[in-house]
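hiii, so i know i said id send this last week but things got crazy w the move. better late than never?? heres the sequnce for the chain we talked about at the cafe, plus the structure i predicted for it. fair warning i was half asleep when i ran it
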Amino acid sequence: MSQPEQLTVERGAEALRPRRRDGERAARASLQAQIARLERELSGIVADGFPRLSPRAGSTTHGPTGSAATTGEPFGGPRLLSLEQLELLRDRLAGRVQDLRRCEQRCVERQRRAHDLLARMQLEPARYKFVRLPVTELGEGGCGVWEVRPRLGLIGMLAGWWQLTLSSGCPLGRGPRPRRGPSRQS
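okay and structure toks below
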């Protein structure tokens, strides 16, 4: 090969390097944008579903999204993720978003069934004798429980008088009991 041809080949290789860098930069920017969108979507799902839906609900991955558990590298401060690590992170986030959506759908379906059961219990309490339905199953907070009980105790049970009642809620915390008798003084 002559000297001018050799320079042309080297110049051609150098000319390709910036294009590869630009392509890698564009791929990195695209992956980072996808990751940011998935993280916003994931946080939105958790925020909308709180408290019935936790960030770890339905999670198939373990560890925070940017930690060594995701990237396979030890902790050690700031670093630039490779394209492969960015793709892995994006795929795991997409999987978590799908898992949380499925979990949210199951919660909504369970609450719908609980509301249907409560409506049937209100219409025909005698058909649902001693059935208990916690208000948490309805998507409400607190410790209350809907229950079908006999009206007037044993007499109502024998007479077939059933009613739907809601408990008053959580028992009050009472703290330590006071001591009985005279206090001890030294």
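btw DSSP finds four helices and three strands in the chain. thought thatd interest u
miss u guys!!
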